[in-house]
Amino acid sequence: MTITIEFAPCPEFIANHVNEARPLLNFSEWGKLDRDRQSKKLQQICDEVSDGGMPLSTYTPLHPGSKLTPADVKVLCDWTDTERARLAGITK
User: Which regions of the chain are under pLDDT 50?
Assistant: First the structure.
């Protein structure tokens, strides 16, 4: 007999992840960043998903459908590339 136990993630665990990540990337503050910083953040987004750093390995077991496929990574990186090109075309 197999017993499966489902549990809600500990609120402190989630809060800790959010509190650690928010200073690194907070889209609510995006408009306050200069274009160069935005461009660097966009590149970091692509790098992070390309390297398998996101979603976090602690997140995917609780959310099995959250693992990114190669197609998902391509969509995200294509978007970041497009946005970086748009930022580069904006006159300062």
Answer: none
